[in-house]
């Protein structure tokens, strides 16, 4: 998830017999797990936060979108800071900041403080997470990295299943009368332990030829996204004022300025934030579009799904968390089959089948939600969730390798970082679009005098409307995938002589997608 080509990392500094490297691995894997769980754990607690804090729906969107936006905007810069100033140093700075931000979230006195703390948490995660694979690469010899990335895949699967359940349990238990706050406070002891142990066991490393920072590029990307997202999330509450449309149109101008600036910077010093030459590779350009659109679809679905179950149907956080388990299990199972058995044999068709299978699951869910209304049960959701999870698993695990397969090896690191960045940006955009595709449908029916049954029916209608959008997004992804290579080049799976850990990048992208 970082921007530099880790194949240029120095030789492993820990001797093959040095057991310290396994402690270092446990510490960085714990940090990656914290980040993954933190995203999924918050979704399940959103209705409790909204109820207890009196947060508006736009604030609820920013609690999730703010994290995704800050994370996306800082990922590439976080990776470069590690390469320049030392990966251990930036990792410890990131995990310390992430722990502090978690404390601020847990002790937030109002929704505004919670949103600001979540944005800080996302920015700190952008410093912490990109160092994980760089530290692994600099610490482990090439012949051990396959085993390490296998462990990372297991952590991804565990995080996907345990995040929603842990969030549900902590919310339901109401520890010490703290309501939803333990979902953030649980990071404190873990973060402090990782900080203390990391300073002792992680070996410092830097890239021999690190690229320069492109802070102006980061500023332009962040500004463009804010100009697009802020009017989307606030526009509905404010009656869609003219300035909102002007801001969204202006975002396109800022994006154009970003492209011009990046082209000039690349010609000047060869270290742009975005390597524009990558977009001349058809499969990469199409893959970036797929990742972005997929992020939009997931951003819409997961927030709306949580609100539908807990606010619309009136279910507890624990019931909602348990209902999602079949989905997580199906994602993990299908992801393993996809990489090991199906893609080597059928290539691109597996990813396209995944998009169609996931769309079929969404449509089954839509039909069941309309048919059973407020009387729907968790068991009736199992079929669509398993179908959706299977489709998603077929896509997320091999997608990054397919996108990178025709990218020149010297740009593999930059391309990997960019893939993950746009996926996070798509996720933030999807969360912003919830205002249009969900709240826009239920707005008129959410009056103070509305009976619980009326509110429930409004949320069911909003949910089915949003599912229609998600199904359309998946069909668009299916079509975009025709531009991917029929059979991804095998060298991307991991294995050049240098041991370039691109497979690890793929798994990190999978982690973010699952979340």
UniProtKB/TrEMBL annotation:
Keywords: Antibiotic resistance, Cell membrane, Membrane, Transmembrane, Transmembrane helix, Transport. Residues 493-515 are annotated as: Disordered. It is a multi-pass membrane protein. Pfam families: MFS_1 (PF07690). Residues 24-489 form the Major facilitator superfamily (MFS) profile domain. Residues 505-515 have a biased composition (Basic and acidic residues). Its main location: membrane. It is found in: Cell membrane. The keyword Lipid metabolism does not apply. The chain crosses the membrane at residues 22-46, 58-78, 90-109, 115-136, 148-170, 182-201, 213-230, 242-262, 283-308, 320-343, 350-367, 379-404, 425-442, 462-484. The keyword tRNA processing does not apply. This is MFS transporter. It comes from Streptomyces tendae.
């Amino acid at each position: 998830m970082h921007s530099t080509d880790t194949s240029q990392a120095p030789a492993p500094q820990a001797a093959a017999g040095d057991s310290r490297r396994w402690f270092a691995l446990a510490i960085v894997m714990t940090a990656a797990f914290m980040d993954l769980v933190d995203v999924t754990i918050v979704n399940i607690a959103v209705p409790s936060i909204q109820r207890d804090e009196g947060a508006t729906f736009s604030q609820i969107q920013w609690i999730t979108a703010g994290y995704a936006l800050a994370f996306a905007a800082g990922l590439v810069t976080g990776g470069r800071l590690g390469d320049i100033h030392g990966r251990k140093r930036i990792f410890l700075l990131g995990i310390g900041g992430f722990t502090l931000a978690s404390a601020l979230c847990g002790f937030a006195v109002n929704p505004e403080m919670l949103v600001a703390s979540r944005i800080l948490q996302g920015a700190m995660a952008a410093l912490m997470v990109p160092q994980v694979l760089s530290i692994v690469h600099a610490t482990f010899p090439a012949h051990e990295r396959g085993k390490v990335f296998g462990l990372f895949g297991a952590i991804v699967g565990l995080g996907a299943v345990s995040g929603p359940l842990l969030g549900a349990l902590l919310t339901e238990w109401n520890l010490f009368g703290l309501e939803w706050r333990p979902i953030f406070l649980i990071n404190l002891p873990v973060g402090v332990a990782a900080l203390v142990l990391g300073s002792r066991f992680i070996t410092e490393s830097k890239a021999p030829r690190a690229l320069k920072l492109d802070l102006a590029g980061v500023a332009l990307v962040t500004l463009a996204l804010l100009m697009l997202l802020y009017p989307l999330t606030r526009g509905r509450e404010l009656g869609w004022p003219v300035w909102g449309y002007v801001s969204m149109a202006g975002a396109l101008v800022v994006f154009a300025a970003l492209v011009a600036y990046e082209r000039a910077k690349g010609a000047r010093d060869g270290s742009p934030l975005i390597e524009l030459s990558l977009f001349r590779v058809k499969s990469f350009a199409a893959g970036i579009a797929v990742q972005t659109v997929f992020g939009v679809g997931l951003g819409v679905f997961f927030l709306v799904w949580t609100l539908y179950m807990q606010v619309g149907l009136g279910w507890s956080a624990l019931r909602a968390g348990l209902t999602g388990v079949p989905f997580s299990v199906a994602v993990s199972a299908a992801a393993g089959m996809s990489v090991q058995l199906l893609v080597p044999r059928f290539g691109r068709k597996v990813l396209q089948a995944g998009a169609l299978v996931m769309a079929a699951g969404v449509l089954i869910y839509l039909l069941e939600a309309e048919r059973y209304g407020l009387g729907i049960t968790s068991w009736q959701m199992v079929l669509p969730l398993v179908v959706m999870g299977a489709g998603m698993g077929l896509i997320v695990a091999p997608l990054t390798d397919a996108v990178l397969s025709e990218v020149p090896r010297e740009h593999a690191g930059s391309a990997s970082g960019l893939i993950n960045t746009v996926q996070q940006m798509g996720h933030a955009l999807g969360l912003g679009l919830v205002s249009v595709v969900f709240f826009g449908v239920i707005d008129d029916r959410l009056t103070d005098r509305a009976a619980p049954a009326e509110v429930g029916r409004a949320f069911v209608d909003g949910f089915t409307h949003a599912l229609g959008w998600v199904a359309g997004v998946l069909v668009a992804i299916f079509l975009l995938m025709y531009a991917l290579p029929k059979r991804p080049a095998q060298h991307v799976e991991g294995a050049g002589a240098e041991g370039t850990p691109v497979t690890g990048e793929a798994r990190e992208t999978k982690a973010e997608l699952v979340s």
